[in-house]
Write a structure and sequence with these properties.
Strand content: 35-45%
Shape: globular
Distance between the termini: 36 Å
Helix content: under 10%
Strand order of the largest sheet: 4-7-2-1-10-13-12
Largest sheet: 7 strands, mixed
Structural class: mainly beta
CATH class of the largest domain: Mainly Beta
CATH topology of the largest domain: Immunoglobulin-like
Number of strands: 28
Number of helices: 4
CATH architecture of the largest domain: Sandwich
Radius of gyration: 23 Å
């Protein structure tokens, strides 16, 4: 693993909760990242919902992970899966004294309850121990029926969440901006990404739909488009991508503006069985250098190649369009993914792009780049401060004093980010 990767993981875990940034030299407390929760609401009279919780343990060397049970909930744990292999993991329900004695949850209260998970392998330095925890909660304080109306009200501290309505129910209100997707089984799923620093007090209200109407909703998704003129694009068959569940984080570290360069890393989870390579097509106008890649599950350093023009064709790589002499790709090779498993990659490289990052005068720089991923971070160069930012972002300061902007793109399509900075005198 490169020195740069060790630094950015220590300093740049941009979407990790604040408690995940504790100093490892003074604390053994567990840390985590990449959390996503899906709540599937069961029949309202049951006051129960099934939870699939995706999370990564990140404390280097940890062999266990503790998932707290929210007070007032009656848990039924169905199992825990190691997402790298797809295999079941050993788990047990324990009290707070067990969690506290482990050193991983030093402030655990005696009356607290936890799911204790034995990890498949120690968490590698700078890596991930990826888990899927499957459980059902009965919790009348969070989910109940009032006549025909079902209400789900819960403070959600995880940044990425989805809630699936019971079969045969329609949405009548939600209090936080959310995507709404019709699942293949006919149920409606809401999802959102929380860009803020505190949990969302999320409330959904739903009621039963007449069966005939519910059938019509599904049947009409493939209707032919109306005649609206050739200038309009028909989007009736468009499949809405759920942004909350996407995992492709990217972090840009701007070098000094006169270099027109920025170092970056991006994470990619490969879930397709049999796939053993990742092809990154370098954006037109940019040049890539010094690429490297690691499997975050194990710390394994991977083979990486930079290919251009005819080299792409000669290696038999399909990039969607015929490559030209200017086409450049970074190819990463890894063991093919087994059925039911996945591999999490972290890829790093340096880009040079004078059209999108450049000095504007002696004491100013401009960054002008579109972002397609849902979660993006830009770290300003050392010695520079922020004066303008076009797209809303949260602003933080890195441990080394550099200013960072964190962007959440919770909708399909790209955001056009424009940043202007000035040199500190």
């Amino acid at each position: 693993m490169s020195a740069f990767l060790r630094v950015i993981i220590a300093f740049g875990a941009c979407f990790v909760p604040a408690d995940a940034q504790a100093d490892e030299s003074t604390s053994r407390a567990q840390t985590q990242a990449d959390a996503f929760t899906r709540y599937e609401l069961l029949a309202p009279a049951s006051e129960s919902f099934r939870i699939t919780y995706f999370v990564s343990a990140t404390r280097a060397g940890a062999t266990r992970f503790y998932n707290p049970i929210r007070p007032g909930s009656e848990p039924d744990v169905h199992g825990v899966v190691d997402r790298m292999t797809g295999e079941d993991l050993e788990w047990s329900l324990v009290k707070g004294d067990d969690a506290r004695a482990s050193g991983l949850v030093p402030n655990a209260a005696d009356e607290g309850e936890y799911i204790r998970v034995d990890l498949a392998r120690p968490v590698p330095s700078g890596g991930r121990g990826r888990l899927l925890i499957d459980k059902t909660y009965k919790d009348a304080a969070s989910y109940r029926a009032d006549g025909d109306v079902a209400t789900f009200r819960r403070t959600l501290g995880v940044k990425r969440n989805a809630v699936v309505l019971p079969a045969g129910y329609e949405l009548i209100s939600v209090n936080y901006p959310s995507q709404l997707i019709l699942r293949e089984d006919g149920r409606l799923e809401l999802s959102f990404i929380n860009p803020g620093a505190v949990g969302v007090d999320y409330e959904i209200r739903a009621r039963p739909v007449r069966p005939a109407l519910a059938t019509d909703i599904i049947a009409k998704t493939n209707d032919a488009p109306p005649d609206r003129g050739s200038s309009e694009v028909w989007r009736g068959s468009y499949r809405i991508p759920q942004r909350a569940s996407q995992t492709r984080d990217i972090v840009y570290f701007l070098q000094q503006p006169e270099t027109n360069s920025f170092r970056l890393y991006h994470d990619y989870e490969e879930t397709r069985p049999g796939v053993g390579r990742y092809i990154n097509v370098v954006r037109a106008g940019s040049k890539a250098s010094n690429p490297s890649a690691v499997v975050l599950d194990t710390g394994e350093v991977l083979e990486v190649e930079t290919l251009r023009g005819d080299e792409i064709t000669e290696r038999g790589l399909d990039i969607g369009t015929p490559p030209t002499s200017e086409t450049e790709v970074v190819a990463i090779w890894f063991d093919p993914v087994p059925e039911g498993a996945s591999t999490l990659l972290r890829i790093e490289e340096t880009y040079t792009d004078a059209q999108r990052y450049f000095a504007s005068g002696e004491h100013e720089f401009l960054w002008d780049r579109s972002f397609g991923r849902s979660r993006n971070k830009v770290v300003l160069p050392d010695g520079w401060y922020l004066v303008e930012n076009a797209v809303p972002a949260t602003v933080t300061t890195e441990p080394d004093g550099r200013v960072a902007l964190n962007y959440i793109n919770d909708r399909p399509g790209v955001i056009d980010v424009l940043i202007r900075g000035k040199r500190r005198r």
